Amino acid sequence: MHKLFIDGPAGKLESILAEPKKSPKGIAVVAHPHPLHGGTMDNKVVYTLFNSILELGYIAVKFNFRGVGKSEGNFDDGIGETNDIVTVTQTIQHQFDHHLHDKPLLLAGFSFGGGVQLRAVERLHPQSLVLVAPSIRTAGTAFSCSDVEQTLIIHGDQDEITPLPTILDWATPHTLPIVVIPGAEHFFHGKLPVLKSTIHNFMKT
Asked: Does the N-terminal or the C-terminal CB of the chain have fewer CB atoms within 10 Å?
């Protein structure tokens, strides 16, 4: 595991990359919650996503959006942040292209980060999506899941920021199943082990 700075559209992006002990299955990029509400790549749900995916054999990357931590630039309401994700993903793909050019891409995100990942789908064409309490407002109407082979959406039935009925209404026209964790609110306090096991069970199928 090591820290690196990636040249982003608005300046340097503070990033952390970790490689699995065995030959990697693919590349995974994890996005954090809202920058204006304290969201960073050190968020505990992001940490759980990052480590779960690493344990499953992926090269895992997380980073701070523009204007967060040591990343340069300013908040851009999801638009510039989508460009950040695209740049980070393509940079890492290029870095490992010599032995991972045919391996799958997984995009993961929590809250705002999940919404931004939905915006990035049509530009990055991932094989898998793992989204925890994604922000539908951030995602807008750009999302199309038709080319994504696997999509896992995890939500808490006590989510006070993106209520469960909101995510169900959004998922219905896309015919996307939602894994609901009873008793979990938006930040999954006390539910991180369940979150981790849900991700592992999904990715092993």
From this structure: C
